Amino acid sequence: MLGGTLDDAAGECFDKLAKLLGLPYPGGPVLDRLAEEGNPVAHAFPRPLIHEPNDDFSFSGLKTSVRYYLEKRPGLADDPAPLRDLCASIRAAVVDTLVTKVIRAALREGLDTVTASGGVTCNRALRRDLTSECSRAGLSLRLAEPRFCTDNAGMVGVIAERRWRTGVAPDAPDLEISPGWALEDL
After folding, report:
1. What pLDDT score does 114 carry?
2. CATH of 10-112 among 3.30.420.40, 3.40.50.12780, 3.30.160.20, 2.40.128.270
3. Which residue, 7, 10, 3, is CA-closest to 125?
4. Low-confidence ranges of the chain (pLDDT < 70)
5. What's the pLDDT tens digit per position in 40-65?
6. DSSP state, 177?
7. Of 10, 127, 157, 172, which residue has the fewest beta carbons closer than 10 angstroms?
8. What does the alpha-carbon distance between residue 25 and residue 163 come to, in Å, rounded to a whole number?
């Protein structure tokens, strides 16, 4: 593993910011649809850790930046045109960060193929930009079809079901959460 999220993953960031904007859950797909009609350069939100030499991601600073931006502009998210621009700018910040870090890591490691799956892989801008940047960098890209890009909750549910069927005792309800937990081969 080359890198990981230090706090919220991209999908969690999309969902939490969508909630802040008053959009329904899950917010990522709704934010993506609105972003398609917005201006991605309308607002200059940060691209977290994009200049760091590591392959890690962090979206807490982006969430904070958007929250402060909205606090200074009450009612902005209630107006359809500015809301679309805001969604497009948020999506651009997340996608730029993901694509830049993935391409940089692939080239540094001498890889010739990039693969992507998971819920955020349904994001239209991510699919477009990853396709474009992989082509520009001479990398082959393998994208999972959107119907196979499931939410993490579904993946966790499969592991829970497998653990239950094999008789693995459930963890204590007060067990501390660790985002880096390894999953057993069940």
Report:
1. 96
2. 3.30.420.40
3. 10
4. 150-155, 177-186
5. 999 999 998 999 999 999 998 999 99
6. P
7. 172
8. 28
pLDDT at 163: 82
Question: What token pair was written down for 95?
Answer: 């996608």
How many beta carbons lie within 10 A of that of residue 20, not counting itself? 15
Q: Which of 1, 7, 5, 26 is nearest to 151 (CA)?
A: 26
Backbone angles phi, psi at 140, to 5 degrees: -80, 145
Which residue is listed with tokens 């930009």?
129
Beta-bridge partner residues of 5: 57
Q: Six-digit token pair at 139?
A: 């990398």
Q: What is the pLDDT of residue 40?
A: 97
What tokens does 182 get?
Answer: 């390894």
How many other C-beta atoms are found inside a 10 Å radius of the C-beta of residue 141? 18
Q: What are residue 114's phi and psi, to 5 degrees?
A: -115, 140
Q: How high is the pLDDT of residue 4?
A: 86
- The pTM for the full model equals 0.82
